Amino acid sequence: MKTKFITTSHVWILLLLLHITTIWGCGFYEDWGNDAPEISSFTVPNEVQYGETVEFRVTAFDPEDDTITYAWDVSEGILKNTTESKVEWIAPSLLDDEISPPRTVTVSLLVRDGGEKEASRSANVVVYSKAYEVGNGLKGIYELVRSEVNGEVEEALSGTMRLTTTTYTRQLGDGTQFFSGSYQLVEPFSNNKGTINWYPDGLQQLSVSTYTWDGQLLVIYWEGTATIHVYEKRN
């Protein structure tokens, strides 16, 4: 019978293999034994007004109870902090007299655990101008169907008015009375009623009226002259 001897080189090889196996096994266990954190709720509003401050919230947990970290990001606006489960965000602002169409802001969140596993969520927020939304609903061409001064109906008075989201042109009678300029909705206002400041071209003095609107008839009342104009929308 031949006796096999284990040399020193064999021992070192066995120890090296054992060490490699141990390292690989630990990495394998960590990889398979550590699950990514889970996001159970993600609260971001669908739409906000320009300049409004709102809160984003997330609820997350880690299956191994690892410490969770949060990383928020937005494409526009200001985040007051970025590393908490609840953060405040200030939407992009407009100047006081600025009217702007809505735009979309992307909100992103990355949640990590101590083992560097991660989960993510994102959402879009529509940022809008209330004045633009209401003005966009009012815009169009109107025909004057009724006019009153101090409660007396003005017979046979005709006219038209054209509104954009920020400007107006008005024509009364045979066209000899023509007005144009810009207008601004004054808080508080809604789709159905409110106050309008009218700024005629070339004049520094504005005129103020109230309005009511039902989607077809636009009633404008100037308190200063006790005048009511009732317009019907044509398109």
Question: Explain this structure to me?
Answer:
The chain is mainly beta and 235 residues long. The protein has 2 domains: 45-128, Sandwich (Immunoglobulin-like), CATH 2.60.40; 133-233, Lipocalin (Beta Barrel), CATH 2.40.128.270. Helix content is 15%, strand content 48%. The protein has helices at 8-33, 130-138; strands at residues 38-43, 47-49, 53-61, 69-74, 78-79, 86-90, 103-112, 118-128, 140-149, 152-153, 159-163, 167-172, 177-186, 193-200, 207-213, 217-222, 227-233. It has an 8-stranded antiparallel β-barrel. Strands 1-3-6-5 form a 4-stranded antiparallel β-sheet, with no helix packed on it. A 4-stranded mixed β-sheet has the order 2-8-7-4.
Give the number of DSSP strands.
Answer: 17
Query: How many domains?
Result: 2
Name given to the CATH architecture of the largest domain: Beta Barrel
* Residue share in helix: 10-25%
Radius of gyration, in Å, reads: 34 Å
Q: Tally the helices.
A: 2
Strand order in space, largest sheet: 9-11-12-13-14-15-16-17
- The CATH class designation of the largest domain is Mainly Beta
CATH topology of the largest domain: Lipocalin
Give the overall average pLDDT. Answer: 87
**Structural class of the secondary structure composition?**
mainly beta
Largest sheet: 8 strands, antiparallel, barrel
Residues in β-strands, percent: over 45%
